[in-house]
User: Which sequence fits this backbone?
């Protein structure tokens, strides 16, 4: 065995060598920073009141570990989506940024105020989110009196924590680029981590002004007058087709919401907006977010394809990696083009019809999800036999000026 080889449980023998633990720990911590710290969920529903003292033990346990954790469960949904399909979360962040910009310009408020409206942060006295244009017009004076500092006080993260997480990802990218410049190989796990770091750097920038993990909304006035939504309202596409269950959002509607579409509007009477809701003004919003999502999907695929000629432990693993890497870019582009006209980037997916669109999205999911699973499992399997060169660390002395 080559003397440069390090045991998986051992420590580095020289300064320019790293251990198995260094490789795995660096990748896992970076992925965690990418998918957890960057997740900015909408305002969660209020926690139900605790059960009475004479309630059963099961009721107390359910309230403490399930009902009370509703905010955490919402964040886990965003994290899971960001781990499986990070380009969809970038598209979601882009849509919220566009609507926040629109609110900021129209009502002369800060970008943070615009995000807070889009995430269901302002409610009336009946705890109905103010996301329709009629409601916002009615309460805009009260909204303007809420300072940006008061909104940010409800955020569980600040610019410092976001900067630390962003620097963690950027430092990992720098290390990978340095390894390539010094002709040192990247493990498959490092390639996957590099893809996450590249995409979530975009995600952090899109959501930079969005408050993080807000647990309670801000009440800004009396109950909004009851006005039926119209085509000129801020809605998540009030299109009346597809499965519709009053009082409960169907699985199909939740799936469409993740893609940036929605088929029902009952949630305006709920105490919180859905997890992937974004207030949308159909004439002006979403001009660029589909394009951003498409470019990010291409970037995510390209980073994986960069390992096209890497050393794989078997021919089967090599072709699984190659085919899955291509699917990461092809499938999202097809799905995005289905509901975008490719020129103005506005919604045209309804022209395909409900059944046709559903079939296309179902087929896309059937191809995309296995491809993501392959690219999650293969890097872990490849750790069973790393090459000697993979344990060599970057020689940073080469970049220091010599006297």
Assistant:
């Amino acid at each position: 065995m080559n003397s440069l080889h390090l045991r998986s449980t051992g420590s580095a023998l020289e300064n320019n060598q790293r251990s198995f633990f260094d490789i795995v720990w660096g990748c896992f911590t970076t992925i965690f920073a990418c998918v957890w710290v960057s997740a900015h969920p909408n305002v969660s529903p209020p926690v139900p009141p605790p059960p009475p003292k004479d309630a059963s033990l099961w009721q107390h346990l359910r309230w403490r570990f399930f009902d009370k954790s509703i905010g955490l469960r919402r964040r886990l949904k965003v994290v899971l989506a960001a781990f499986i399909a990070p380009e969809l979360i970038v598209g979601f962040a882009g849509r919220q940024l566009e609507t926040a910009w629109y609110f900021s310009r129209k009502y002369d408020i800060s970008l943070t105020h615009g995000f807070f409206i889009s995430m269901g942060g302002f409610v009336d006295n009946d705890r109905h989110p103010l996301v329709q244009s009629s409601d916002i017009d009615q309460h805009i004076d009260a909204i303007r009196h809420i300072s940006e500092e008061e909104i940010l006080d409800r955020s569980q993260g600040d610019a410092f924590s976001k900067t630390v997480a962003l620097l963690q990802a950027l430092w990992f990218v720098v290390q990978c680029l340095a390894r390539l410049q010094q002709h040192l190989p990247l493990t498959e796990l490092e390639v996957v981590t590099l893809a996450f770091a590249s995409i979530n750097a975009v995600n952090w920038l899109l959501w930079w002004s969005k408050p993080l993990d807000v647990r309670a909304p801000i009440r800004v006035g009396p109950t909004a007058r009851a006005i039926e939504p119209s085509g000129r309202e801020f809605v998540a596409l009030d299109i009346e087709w597809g499965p519709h269950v009053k009082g409960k959002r169907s699985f199909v509607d939740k799936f469409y919401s993740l893609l940036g579409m929605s088929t029902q509007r009952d949630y305006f009477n709920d105490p919180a907006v859905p997890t992937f809701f974004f207030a949308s003004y159909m004439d002006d919003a979403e001009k660029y977010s589909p394009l951003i999502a498409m470019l990010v999907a291409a970037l995510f695929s390209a980073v994986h394809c960069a390992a096209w000629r890497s050393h794989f432990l078997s021919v089967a693993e090599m072709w699984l990696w190659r085919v899955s890497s291509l699917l990461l870019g092809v499938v999202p582009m097809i799905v995005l083009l289905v509901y975008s006209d490719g020129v103005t980037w506005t919604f045209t997916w309804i022209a395909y019809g409900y059944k046709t669109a559903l079939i296309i999205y179902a087929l896309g999911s059937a191809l995309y999800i296995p491809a993501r699973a392959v690219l999650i499992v293969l890097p872990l399997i490849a750790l069973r036999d790393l090459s000697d060169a993979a344990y060599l660390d970057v020689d940073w002395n080469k970049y220091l000026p010599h006297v």
